[in-house]
Amino acid sequence: MANKKWKKKIDDFMFDHENVKNAVEIIKSMLACVVAAAIYAFGYRCFILNTDPHLRLVSGGMSGFSQTIVQLFELFGVLEPEKITTWQPIFNYLLNIPMFIIGWKYIGKRFSILTLFTVLLISLFTTFMPQSILDLFKSIQNDLLPRALFAGICTGIATVIAFKNCSSTGGLDVVSLAVANKKSTSIGKYLVIFNGIVLIGYTLTSYLYFMKNPLPNPLPNGAENPDGAENPALVLFLFSAIYLFTNALVNDFLNSRYRKAQIQIITTNENISNILIANFPHGCTIMNGKGAFSKENRFIIYMVVSSSEVQKVVQLVQVVDPHAFVNVTTLNQVYGRFYIEPFK
Predict the structure, then answer these.
(1) Among 212, 215, 253, 265, residue whose Cα is nearest residue 235
(2) What angle do CA 144, 246, 182 make, to 5 degrees?
């Protein structure tokens, strides 16, 4: 009870002091960017990036594109494989500058600035990741499946944390978010399409690299490499695809921004509809009904809301009419005008 009183006092104070509220929101978003960047860099550096090309998976988006560029330099002998942890973050940050412009124009200014800040942190954390952290996962470097799964979970969680705080981890996330905002649908499928193109491009360059630099004998894991061993590019392609699908699934599972639900309210209080409209940026439809047992007249109210708004709607209805019957149905998609709060 005391917590609710303090929360109300804080909310009232923030309502009366708009500048303080905005400053707190910015600080909160920046802290979230630091957390998201740390988690993303951890998953990327520990489980994706590897100084040995034979154990290197590929990420999606601009991270994967920057890996492709480094791989081309390695193919032509310009860079040594060990230099990828230095040059990949640099290329990744440079390639995200056009993404910053797209975000500024089509999504929001604060979103773009925070995204650029997050990408900078990801690049720094990736470059200066302590060796002690990398050594903790040294034993699974030859196990591509757990690496792909852990990387997808970490980077997916980091992406959702960034999205929920008016930011992103950069790259094609910005493009897919711009498309998803326009079509008001899940971003996972757009990530799969865009990242699939990057994956194919990297696999082609990787295949050529291994044609020029065949597998050593013995292999990095100490096993013997028989003559005529297959090019590992297709194997790396398979596990990189598993990583990308894991990342997309985590994004769609945790990101409730584009998930919607239909709420059906059966009540005797018609005024609930006015209260709902006053508190949520959505319309609703009222139908007349009659109870089969009581034979009393009822109002049936239909409303579509974002998944993150469901609990607030139900709580509000229960306060206004404790006897109301509420039914919630998850929706795959809606067509027509549906309001989604834009990024700033």
Answers:
(1) 215
(2) 145
